[in-house]
């Protein structure tokens, strides 16, 4: 077994380190001296440590490669719902500073989705969802609530299908929640909506990052609507704070606490802001206005905010503070990306891919196009079909497994990460399967810091139920399945090594 490929040593205090076993996601604790020797190689362990390690190999299934076997034997339909991202409209009333959709229309969509698309969407589901597979709607835009009538009609049709043949549907919307169309409370309550709200923190940061297109702030309106929804729907809906962190001040922890203290949100999602700077020459971009070119192409590089000096420290500090947010007096149940990683370790599970894009997740847009990724709607070269015809182009590049990748296949975090975001790869390199170095660094940092947090945690935190995470479309529907690792005999002595999960 090789350090950095088959296992990873993660020191988190002066006297203790965590050790993750890549093959089945066992997490161990070891004294600092033992961990340093293990980092140099198994053959550097002291005789008694080596004996304990061999007992672990035999008892805990280190050599079974449970994750690799589970991935190799999986089907596309395993580990996630069949998901349809319904791109409802080309308009958005906010002017978010880091919008990847070019203000809502992706530089391509010129109209809202019409009712004729509804039949196409349900035909697509009937032809492509696996028998008995749950179906998820991801209502998206632009601002999807600007086309509320189509949302209502899709929900009504889904209800009829469920009553007819028992197909289970999940309804989730990604919204800025500045609009509250008539009937929204009744619809969200009736269909138990998961409502993911784009809000980055307190009033100062939200109004700076996500102002209205008229220049006014959006925070007060969103909070007013959140309170109205929570009061009307109670626990019949799930509220998720979808945070994009793109400023150094206020710090990450303070921005989260600003929203946590409202006690409105059940879950959080925390994304690093990714923005262009004119250093590097990988992606040529010309600034245009209609048919008029305003500037020649310039080389730009997309920078991940969480990898910047000082922000790395904010991220690590927040993970130290994170377990304190699980307060019985607050409805907070976790940060989705962190808890999904914890689940894979505590329960023994593997990621079959980074996301479900091009596997069991497709975006349907108002112009009739079908794309494997909602972020790539603006690029026609990624279209894989049309609403009228369904999928018309094979797209194996979206289905390459992490074990088939020449770089990812040797990474210790490969069965936690699943291989990286293909859209971020494309933006940085022009190839969906050529790694974006910054995205890769961020995923590794996230995995390391979450594992250290887990190693420091108490048994109560490790034992929390995480059943709900299959509902919440974590990491664009990252498909995750149990890896079948063997149960451990608690009475076995593993010497210097303590099996945490």
TrEMBL record:
CDD domains: Radical_SAM
Record field: transmembrane: none
Residue ranges annotated for the Radical SAM core domain, each copy included: 78-307
InterPro entries xref list: 4Fe4S-binding_SPASM_dom, Aldolase_TIM, rSAM, rSAM_sf, Sulphatase_maturase_rSAM
SUPFAM superfamilies: Radical SAM enzymes (SSF102114)
Keywords: Iron, Iron-sulfur, Metal-binding, S-adenosyl-L-methionine
Obligatory cofactor(s): [4Fe-4S] cluster
Cleavable signal peptide: none
UniProt keyword annotation of Ribosomal protein present: no
Domain of life: Bacteria
Protein known as: SPASM domain-containing protein
Organism phylogeny: Bacteria, Bacillati, Actinomycetota, Actinomycetes, Kitasatosporales
């Amino acid at each position: 077994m090789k350090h950095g490929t088959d296992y990873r040593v993660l020191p988190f205090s002066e006297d203790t380190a965590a050790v993750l076993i890549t093959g089945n996601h066992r997490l161990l604790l070891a004294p600092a001296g033992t961990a340093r020797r293990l980092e140099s190689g198994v053959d550097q362990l002291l005789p008694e440590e080596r004996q304990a390690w061999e007992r672990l190999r035999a008892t805990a299934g280190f050599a079974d490669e449970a994750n690799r076997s589970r991935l190799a034997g999986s089907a596309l339909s395993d580990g996630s719902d069949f998901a349809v991202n319904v791109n409802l409209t080309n308009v958005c009333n906010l002017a978010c500073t880091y919008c990847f959709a070019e203000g809502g229309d992706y530089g391509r969509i010129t109209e809202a989705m019409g009712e004729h698309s509804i039949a196409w969407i349900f035909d697509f589901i009937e032809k492509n969802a696996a028998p008995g597979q749950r179906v998820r709607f991801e209502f998206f835009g632009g601002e999807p609530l600007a086309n509320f009538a189509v949302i209502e009609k899709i929900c009504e049709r889904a209800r009829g299908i469920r009553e007819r043949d028992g197909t289970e549907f999940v309804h989730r919307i990604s919204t800025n929640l500045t609009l509250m169309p008539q009937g929204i409370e009744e619809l969200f309550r009736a269909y138990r909506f998961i409502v993911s709200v784009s809000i980055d923190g307190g009033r100062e940061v939200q109004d700076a990052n996500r102002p209205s297109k008229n220049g006014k702030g959006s925070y007060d309106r969103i909070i007013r609507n959140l309170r109205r929804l929570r009061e009307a729907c109670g626990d019949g809906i799930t509220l998720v704070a979808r945070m994009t962190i793109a400023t150094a001040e206020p710090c990450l922890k303070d921005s989260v606490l600003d929203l946590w203290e409202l006690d409105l949100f059940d879950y959080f999602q925390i994304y690093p802001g990714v923005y262009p700077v004119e250093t590097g020459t990988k992606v040529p971009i010309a600034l245009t206005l209609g048919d008029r070119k305003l500037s020649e192409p310039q080389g730009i590089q997309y920078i991940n905010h969480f990898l910047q000096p000082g922000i790395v420290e904010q991220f690590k500090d927040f993970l130290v503070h994170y377990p304190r947010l699980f307060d019985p007096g607050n409805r907070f149940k976790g940060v989705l990306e962190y808890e999904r990683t914890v689940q894979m370790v505590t329960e023994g599970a593997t990621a079959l891919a980074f996301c479900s894009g091009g596997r069991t997740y497709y975006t349907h847009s108002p112009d009739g196009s079908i794309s494997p990724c909602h972020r790539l709607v603006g690029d026609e070269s990624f279209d894989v079909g049309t609403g009228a015809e369904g999928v018309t182009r094979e797209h194996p590049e979206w289905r390459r497994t992490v074990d088939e990748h020449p770089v990812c296949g040797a990474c210790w975090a490969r069965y936690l990460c699943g291989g990286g975001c293909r859209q971020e790869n494309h933006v940085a390199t022009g190839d969906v399967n050529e790694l974006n170095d910054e995205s890769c660094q961020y995923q590794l940092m996230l995995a390391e810091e979450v594992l250290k947090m887990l190693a420091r945690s108490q048994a109560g935190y490790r034992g929390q139920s995480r059943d709900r995470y299959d509902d919440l479309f974590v990491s664009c529907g990252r498909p995750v399945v149990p890896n079948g690792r063997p149960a451990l005999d608690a009475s076995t002595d593993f010497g210097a090594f303590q099996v945490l999960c």
